[in-house]
histidine kinase
Amino acid sequence: MIENTFGMNIIPENDIERLAALQRYRIMDTPSEASFDNLAKLCAKIFNVPISLISLVDAERVFFKANIGMGTAKEANRGKSLCALAVLNTDITVFQDALKEPCLIANPNVAGNFGLRFYAGAPLITHDGFLIGTLCIIDKQPRSFSKQEEEILSGLATAVMDQIELRISALDEIQNHRETNLLLSEQQEELQVMNEELTSSNEELRLSQEELIVLNKNLAESESRFRNLIKESPTAIAILKGRELIIDCANDTILKMWDKDTAVLGKPLHLALPSIQEQTIYNFLDQVYLSGEPHYGNEARLSLPHGETLKEVYVNFTYQPIKGVAGGRDLMIVANEVTEQVIARKAAEDLSERLKIALDASKLGSTEVDLATGIMQSTDQFKANYGYTKEESFNYPDLFNTMIPEYRDGVKKLVQEAIDNNSVYSAEYPVKWRDGSIHWISARGRARYDINGKANRMVGMTADITESKLFEQRKDDFLSIASHELKTPVTSLKGALQLLDRIKEKPFTPMHIKLIEQANRSMDKMSVLVDDLLNMNRLTEGNLKLQKSTFTISEMLNLCCNHVRMEGKFELIVEGDKDLQVYADEHRIDQVVVNFVNNAVKYAADSEKIYLKIDKIDQYARISVKDQGPGIPAHVLPHLFDRYYRVNHDSQNYTGLGLGLYICSEIIKRHDGEIGVESEIGAGSTFWFTLPLFPNT
């Protein structure tokens, strides 16, 4: 019994007859022959594989008549060689990825150090239908194998079988002649020895001449078949003779690639394709000719003729030295155009890069989790969302460790429900970075399943929504504050009016004056709050219209803020370029300045002087309001123009909705200007904005 690693019957029913057919060819254990070696080499080059074998399957072993790429190996165990499978079927046997074939799991050539991944074997079929061996190609990388390639391999296998038939025919013919000569020698033994020898010599010479004629005819037929194979090959092939690189043979595929016809045959390559002389790829041809060593190129860029111009193409190619007919050296070019693949790959890489840029720009992080091991393959942004650097390891347990404990079970439950229902899970939860800061994460993910329907991976995306959470919180705080701020003056106004109503019939007293003043103050506060709300609503709905005109800035500053001047407590000092004019909405700019001055009065109550300064900077006017108050902390400055932001200054609470500076910033932005603040604790604050001097066209 032979060893069998395939887990299936590898002995055909007609194996006894098959072995008898193999033996009649008298080819087992014979030395290597150039005709078979050349066919194996050609096969390896055409399909661009490292290994090509002509194998003959005996009872317990496989004999390699030709071996390209397998070192000095002469044979293999039938129970381990994939060629044993190739003689079971008249079709070509193909394993595009051996690791995916159940019958090859235990095969040592696949599972062992040899690392076979791709196999294609065409059976060698005798004239009476017996499968005695294979022409096979082997690679250590998985690869696809088209029907057209199968046809080429089958054609080459037919050429190998033809060579075997020619070989046995020649042997039989020689043997027959030897037997005939021996018989003649015995029958004529009594004749003259010299005449017998002369007759025998003449006969042998005649037979040799006949055999030579037959062999030459067979060689011509074999060469014709070989040229037909080249011509019909979908792979671009050309043969160049001598160091002059005369184009001896070129199939239609390579002629189409060159944008030439058969008129180039017989011409030196540099004359047929003048543009190729200036390209690096041409220089390798002479190096291959001189060294006798092949040269390989991958995705080489070429400029080839295309009508009256040149076009750029990408090719994978081989320059292979071969033995010439007259004993010299010729070169064979085998090339495959991969322009579309290269362009598609570059487009995919470009698309991937664009997606990465888009994800980075939106601060979206992505990951893929191996649910069995907890190992995650994450983008840099994904790690950053949890407070990790791109160099650090960050896996599934680390993710849950960052999560605030009371949220962990809920998130795990959502993930499990998404796995069970093959749905998308969505969650928002806070995480604690290692520096102690709290951040909010918005996460979405979906499971991926194996062929058995078991979830084995989870693909997800996250975004840091801390800012939006803070915004929502500020908005909620704003609604609470707005309710409170409006309630206070309304309550005060209502109380004053109720008291006035009670004493309306009584004589006029200081109490009447006090209640009226209280009512007016409440109305003023309500008016300010309502104006802020109305302006905010106009901004949100895009209805804040600008009525622009040309005006002198200093005149506007001298007329604004009269309510502050009339109190007499603060001095408003206008400085700078008092003749500077701008094209803007004077009413809205007045509103911005009033807001700045009101803030100076509110937060810098001890600053008796408030400076209103006008500067010209390039094509812009810069207007600033400077106080000499306590200043604003540095951590507050970036948020002053945010919507709903309110300052608690020196532990004092001030009234307002936190909308004033936000509305100011929107007004200035709609003027195509800039707004900002500069402040230092103990040295006062300067609020400023810029306006274009001329209308934008």
User: Anything to note?
Assistant: Residues 668 and 674 are 6 Å apart (CA to CA). Residues 1-227 form a domain with the Beta-Lactamase fold (CATH 3.30.450.40). The chain has five domains: 1-227, 235-344, 362-464, 469-541, 549-692. Residues 649-657 have pLDDT under 50 and may be disordered.
